[in-house]
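Preliminary data (for renewal application), adenosine-5'-diphosphate complex.
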Amino acid sequence: MDSNFEALGAALPRILDGVWITLQLTVGGALLAMLIAVTLGLLARQENILVRGFARAIIEFFRGTSLVVQLFWFFFVLPQLGVELDAMFVGILALGLNYGAYAAEVVRGSINSVPQGQWEATTALSMTSAQRMRRVIFPQAWALMIPSLSNLLIHLLKGTAIVSFITMADLTFRVDQLRIDTDTFFAYTVGLIIYFVLAYILTLVMNMLEVQAKHRLGRGESLREALSLRSPDTGVDAGEGARS
Amino acid sequence: MAAPNGAVPAIEFRDVQKRFGDTVVLDGLNFTVAKGDRVTLIGPSGSGKTTILRLVMTLEDLTDGYIFIDGEPLTHAEVDGERVELKPKHKTEIRKRIGMVFQQFNLFPNMTVIENIIEAPVHVLGMSKEDAIEKARGLLDQVGLADKEDAHPLELSGGQQQRVAIARALAMDPEILLLDEVTSALDPEIVGEVLGILKDVAESTDITMLIVTHEMQFARDVSNRILMFDGGRIVEEGTPEEFFTNPKEQRTRDFLQAVVADPITGALPWQPAPGASGTPAAPATPTTPSTTSTTTQDGDPL
Ligand SMILES: Nc1ncnc2c1ncn2[C@@H]1O[C@H](COP(=O)(O)OP(=O)(O)O)[C@@H](O)[C@H]1O
Ligand SMILES: [Mg+2]
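Predicted structure:
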């Protein structure tokens, strides 16, 4: 067992490199997914049937095809068509498109669940549809969509593991390597723990975003209050903040 | 229906038809509201009162006919005998003259009270932020909420939220103000303070008002014309005086009896109770007496 930990110590810099690649893919993929989600989510609500149809087609296509196959297609088929892409770029692109298509439905659904009265109030104040979305509807929809987005983000993190198929030395790849110097049980257990810790950190970050978004709507404490250790009812506050 | 003195009316409905699917709510409705008029629409639930206000605010599309605001077509115009829809930009321009206060307040929860009020003046009318804030503070003062400018809407009571909503509508300097049962969602003891504020607005401005309410005392105090609706048609119209003291139509009498009659004596608030020898009925009626409105409007009953 000791030799396992020695081997782990020796492999640590490489494992951290792997974590770094996994994080880059996760954050890059999430940012691209969000951009795509908001764009498609808004387009899928348009009255114009062509615009709406276009958005729906993209959403359905990327939700309905396997992430692995999309990844292989971008990485192995595109070069044959003369388009050579960097592996990191391909990874982020495939993750962004796939999870963006899922998140687009979340964005669209949350926007539609902002109460009718809010839309009507913007009309009564003669706001343009862009002003209405940007200043009134989206900020409220944002608070509604965070829990689902948070879920998708964890899926995305786990989904990054498949990039090891396209020659990237991400966390999964490094854990696989660790197996050579240790054993299968040890290496994959280390892998599980690191993925779990990453997922937990992402969950905490998303929870903070949710506390902040709700506070902006006048519901619940501010992020500062939620994190504060000095507030009189500290125990309750910290617990609530971490759970909600 | 020509407006008095041949002046251009603030609002004109011409042969307006509104259907929801197969349900015809308004069928060939014609009426005008002169500038500065305070017109109250009364009538049983489902008679189309809300629909009328929503059509003026362009929250619904009319299925046929025309609405004119200051003589200008709102959503559709007649061009060479054809009814054509006007550009959204045109609607938006005309809409700026119209404000509305809703039954459910509809304040924006993602903004503070003062942000709610300055939002449209700054971003729609292009007013400077400083000017908008100054104006908003004046309006908050007028509605008795000067100390609440940084509060979140959800921290306020229903009555306070509705007062902010009134301030928000007034901040746009509307020529026409639409009020749809603005006190129906409020606790009875709060109703008076909100109506008191609206009475002040009516007295201190020349805004044209189109009001839907079940508060008959308020209708009587504020409006100069009352239209009784039933089934999407005007059953009777007149001044509050004519209307409440001597309603002509049986339908109107039945309605007034149902909404405002004293539950014990059966008397209308402005009529002596039957059998009560000449003494006017006590103001203990389902409607809030106007005296309460003025004393409690700043939340400080002396
Ligand atoms: N969005 C809608 N869809 C279908 N029917 C509606 C809709 N809005 C109103 N109606 C119908 O139109 C009629 C008039 O409604 P409304 O204008 O709200 O009446 P009032 O305000 O006088 O109570 C009612 O029969 C109502 O059911
Ligand atoms: Mg109604």
